[in-house]
Amino acid sequence: MPAGRRRKGDSKKGSTSVQQPSPKLDGKPEEVEKREKERKTNDLNNNLLKKKKERSKRACINGCCWLIGFVCSSWWFLLFLLNAMPASFPQYVTEAITGPMPDPPGVKMHKEGLKAKHPVVFVPGIVTGGLELWEGHPCMDGLFRKRLWGGTFGEVYKRPLCWIEHMSLDNETGLDPPGIRVRPVSGLVAADYFAAGYFVWAVLIANLARIGYEEKNMYMAAYDWRLSFQNTEVRDQTLSRMKSNIELMVATSGEKVVVIPHSMGVLYFLHFMKWVEAPAPMGGGGGSDWCAKHIKAVMNIGGPFLGLPKSVAGLFSAEAKDIAVARIISFGKDVAEVHSSKVERVDFKGAVKGNNFANRSCRDVWNEYHEMGIADMKAVADYKAFTTESVLELLQFVAPRMMKRGGAHYSYGIADNLEDPKYEHYKYWSNPLETRLPNAPEMEIFSMYGVGLPTERSYVYKFSPTSECHIPFQIDSSAEGGNDEGCLRAGVYSVDGDETVPVLSAGFMCAKGWRGKTRFNPSGIKTYIREYDHAPPATLLEGRGTQSGNHVDIMGNFALIEDIIRVAAGATGNDLGGDRVYSDVFRWN
């Protein structure tokens, strides 16, 4: 029995080792049930959260797919409607909102019976002409003959450093760096649009086509606006090409050409008229009567005959403001208001640059300010005012290398004696105050520009030695006029103009300098002033407007286009009504 009992006990003991007792639950049965419910509730909530996340993820994907599908469907539907609706429907909608639109000038002139007569030559201004790649570094592979300037400007965003390298010219020669060839786009497409949707010459070309013009009697004299005028001939023979094309159009049509330059193209064509008559090798060898034989009229649009101070502001302080003509640059409002005859002059000829400080971070922006001392900068800015004459001395002092390069190709003075042989040099040819108009008494010159827009005339500067990139001078944006009617705003004095070129620069030569027989116009070429008073578009549907006087938007001004078409069809300045003036340009001396 004991043994049996032991076996029985052992078996019980063994059974307990195999079958583990269930864990003992502490607490009352209600608490156990409560905990069990909480556990089940948590599990259920977790499952619900997982399902919600999955549904949310699927909903997001579905939403994106639906959105893409909706956009694509809407786009295709709109394209279908655009192709299905009559071509006049957009104009109908516009007229329903803004009222009846006038006929474009080309349609109006066609109804009057005008037809193409004189060949037309367009001379674009700075920046608006396209430039394309012909040879470049490996970073520009695959872009042969693609536009680097104009169009979409896609390469600016994709490879900005490479783009800058290819757009830059050699600092010494002013021509292409080794291994790079960027050339102007040829044909009417060179400057019809600056970028997608931003017209320059396109509206004028389209209206001329209405009366019979086509590419055989329209020529875009595109040039590389980065180069000096004479270097466009040295590198690309652009002036020779213009001469040949004009001669060809005159020979084939039997009529003289009408030349239409815009902005800087006005000065470029002024240079051309001297170049074409000058003997080779400096000139084109056309002889003194070439212009008289080949040119009926020159219709200058927004011409900066007397210069622009945006160039001064940009060179002096690398600040971008709207372009305007510089009469005075001042340090301090009180001195800016003093008459120029009473301004204290600063003599830079005996100045010595000293107390140099290093500027290694921004020499590509302004590579010569680091050679000036603080004392020299303070002397410049010590409440001195700089007129157009003295600002050139100032730039020669602060930027001698840059001014030396510019002085080799351009001159900025007023001729005392135009018989002086020195004025036969090409650097004087683009300055109307240092050259004569050609001997062409039957030719006409028009100055056409917008008025009614505030245009920069002069700047108030402040000395700021701690400014970024060590450019120690900045436009004093805190300088304001004494009342609401004052012309001083944010350190800039404004006058009447086209928001880029003041009336004085655009109109003075045709109003006074070339009016009648003068030393600048010995053959008495007839000159006319045609001003266009600015009227902004009434609604956004009008785009940039048909009555704009803005420097570029004026290219779509119906009144200007009508004047050009009439002259191209054979009218004279007197047929247009002579001068049309809204400003005081004839009262200035």
UniProtKB/TrEMBL annotation:
GO MF annotations, alphabetized: O-acyltransferase activity; phospholipid:diacylglycerol acyltransferase activity
Catalyses which reaction(s): a glycerophospholipid + a 1,2-diacyl-sn-glycerol = a monoacylglycerophospholipid + a triacyl-sn-glycerol
Basic residues: compositionally biased ranges: 1-10
Chief location bin: membrane
Pfam short name (any one): LCAT
GO CC terms in record: membrane
InterPro entries: AB_hydrolase_fold, LACT/PDAT_acylTrfase
Cleavable signal peptide: none
Annotated keywords: Acyltransferase, Membrane, Transferase, Transmembrane, Transmembrane helix
GO BP annotations listed: triglyceride biosynthetic process
Location in the cell: Membrane
EC number: 2.3.1.158
Disordered as annotated region, ranges: 1-47
Compositionally biased tracts (Basic and acidic residues): 25-42
Family note: Belongs to the AB hydrolase superfamily. Lipase family.
Protein name, as recorded: phospholipid:diacylglycerol acyltransferase
Organism: Centaurea solstitialis (yellow star-thistle)
